[in-house]
Structures are given as C-alpha cells and as structure tokens.
Design goal:
By secondary structure, this protein is of the alpha+beta class. It folds into two domains: about 220 residues, no CATH class; about 110 residues, no CATH class. Helices cover about 15% and strands about 25% of the residues. It has seven helices and 18 strands. The strands form seven sheets. It has a six-stranded antiparallel β-sheet with strand order 5-6-8-9-10-11. Strands 1-2 form a two-stranded antiparallel sheet. A hairpin with a 6-residue loop joins strand 3 and strand 4. The N and C termini lie far apart (about 55 Å). InterPro entries: SO_2930-like_C.
Length: about 350
C-alpha cells in the first residue's frame, strides 16, 4: 500500500518524524494548508501567498515549476546580497512541479507532479512533499518517495516519455544541506532580481517585495547582484550564464560548507580560484565517474573534461547531479561545452 494511504489513516493522531530527535506535525493533504483559492490544481494563490521566480532555476528533468512564498503575519524578509535571503520563522516556501502536455501550447493543459514545501520552524527548515493524485484534485503527503512515468510533447514538437523521481524526505536533505543545516537553495537576491507579472503589469520582484512590506534592507536595485538567465545570451556573457547554471544546479553541494565539500570543487558564483572551479584540477575520489579523464575541466577541451562527462550521463554511478534528474539536460551541456571551449 502506498505510503500516503498509510498516513491518511494515522496522521491525525501521530507525529511525522524528520530525522533524529526532531518531530513535527504534518497535514495529510496540500489543500489543508489553504495556500490556494478555487480549484487547487489551478494554483491561484490565496491572500498572503506571493508568487516568485528565479532567473536561472534548478533543472529537474524538464519539469516546469510554480513558486510561492507565504510569510507569517506582520513579518518580513531581511535582504542580504551573498546568499539566500533571511526568511523569518513561520515562512513557507512552496514549489509545484508540473509538465505541460505540450510545451508549445500551454492551453493544452498540464500535469502536476508534486508540491514541495520548506517550512521555517523554530528549530530550522523542514521539508514536506505532497504528490498529486491522478485526478489532479489534491496532493497527499509522501515521505518515502516515488517514481512516476511522464509523457509530453517537448518544445521542438517531439514526444517524450521518461521516469520522474519524487524524492524521499532524507534525499531533500541531500541538497538542502549547508554545514549540516537544512536551508533553501533558490530565493537569493541575485535570483529574484528580475521581473515577474503581478496581475496585468510586470515589476522587479525585489522592488515589489519591498513595496508590499515583505522585504527590508533593500539597497538601490543598481547595487543588487543579478543572475543572468542561463539560456538568454542578452542577459549575460557566456561565462556569466555558464557560472549561473553551475551555481544553482551544482554549488548547493559543491561549496566549502556543502555535502560535497571534501571534493575540493567549489562551483559557487562567487568562487574566483580557477583550481577550485575545477580547471586543471584532479578529482579527489571520482572513481569511474572520471571516465578516465585526469581533470575536472580541461580548458578548450570539453570532451576531455570530467564535468561534461558526468553531466552528459544518466548512469547512477557517474551522473551529476546525483539527485533530481533521470534525463540529460542537453541544452545546458551544450552551454558548458561552449564555455570550456572558449577558455584559454
């Protein structure tokens, strides 16, 4: 029997355990939170629930994402320019993963896969995952993970079918881990420094958050960092766009405080040391993940670079990132190939 059916019988009387010595109550259904009005699948935010978007988002097997934030009443976010913004206790970050039936035509509908929540509780951030039912009427709590088959027509008109993995809650910690503390990945100043439609008009997200009282400490927008959109050349140089993609997709692990700190590889946007970025750096313990190549990045030679070898694989013992994908993000691999080719 599926895990969520078990919990549907017991969640009203027991506590959901999330790691050693930490327990928090979890509603059985996404609808229990009241985040949305009308039909739940239409994802119309209720008052106090604000949509947001990232300039360069994390790749998850071509899934599209709807993002929202709900702050506790009377509280605000504190600005910082170097990491994720400082969200107050009581904040919920909401992210729904979905596939359009046809990426060329949104009017043909979509299939919602899961809605992940990060809830900032007094003892830290906690992750909850809700899996959408086949009827698309609600999403039910899932703690053990799952795999579903998805089918759609991609942006080039090709029919696609592949597995989509829903992580278990321990796997959530595998990415959202900084110095052994769970933390959000995406909503930083540089990722939110872009426009989003609020009703009929578009506004800069940081400016909007300040205007509605959600954000304090915001400097002039010209002084705020801004991540480019990885696949839009008009938003940044080849180097800037490649680094932005690596930062959001890889640096949550590959940084001095992340789960992959022992690799010595730091793919954060702020890193300036070529060796730490992997240029002519020998891997610490890649095993067969090296593909027989001696360096993470060989300037001018993407086909001799471990980075490209691992991003271009779906072998569980080779592929990077290890979690969050079953397919190859061919467009970003091409971007990174061009980036390495351009290195002197």
């Amino acid at each position: 029997m599926r895990t969520y059916l078990f919990w549907s019988l017991l969640l009203s009387t027991i506590w959901l355990t999330l790691g050693s010595w930490q327990t928090v109550p979890a509603p059985e259904k996404l609808s229990d939170y009241g985040f949305f009005t009308g039909k739940l699948a239409e994802q119309h935010p209720a008052p106090g629930v604000v949509p947001y978007a990232l300039n360069t988002p994390l790749f998850t097997d071509y899934a599209e994402k709807l993002r929202f934030v709900k702050l506790p009443a009377g509280q605000s976010v504190t600005y910082n320019d170097s990491a994720v913004l400082n969200f107050p206790v009581g904040t919920t970050l909401i992210k729904t993963f979905y596939y359009p039936n046809d990426f060329r035509d949104p009017a043909k509908g979509r299939r919602l896969m899961e809605t992940r929540l990060l809830v900032h509780q007094s003892e830290g951030w906690k992750a909850f995952d809700y899996v959408w039912n086949d009827e698309q009427t609600d999403a039910l709590l899932e703690v053990a993970g799952d795999t579903k088959t998805v089918s759609y027509v991609d942006a080039k008109g090709n029919k696609q079918q592949h597995n989509y993995t829903i992580p278990n809650l321990n796997q959530c910690k595998g990415c959202h881990n900084r110095s052994e503390v769970m933390t959000p990945i995406g909503p930083s100043a540089r990722q939110l420094n872009g426009e989003l439609a609020y009703g009929p008009t578009k506004e800069n997200q940081l400016a909007h958050w300040k205007q509605v009282g959600m954000l304090t400490g915001l400097p002039a927008l010209a002084d705020c960092p801004k991540a480019p959109v990885w696949n839009k050349p008009e938003t940044g140089s080849l180097n800037d766009r490649a680094r932005a993609w690596l930062d959001i997709n890889c640096a949550h692990c590959h940084n001095p405080k992340g789960p992959a700190m022992t690799s010595g590889l730091n793919l954060s946007l702020s890193e300036t040391d070529p060796t730490a970025l992997g240029i002519l750096k020998t891997p610490v313990a890649a095993g067969r993940g090296s593909g027989g190549h001696p360096f993470d990045i060989v300037p001018g030679k993407p086909d001799e670079s471990i980075l490209i070898y691992r991003l271009n694989s779906t072998d569980p013992g080779v592929m990077m990132p290890e979690l969050g994908r079953k397919t190859i993000h061919t467009e970003s691999v091409e971007l990174l190939r061009e980036w390495i080719k351009a290195m002197n």
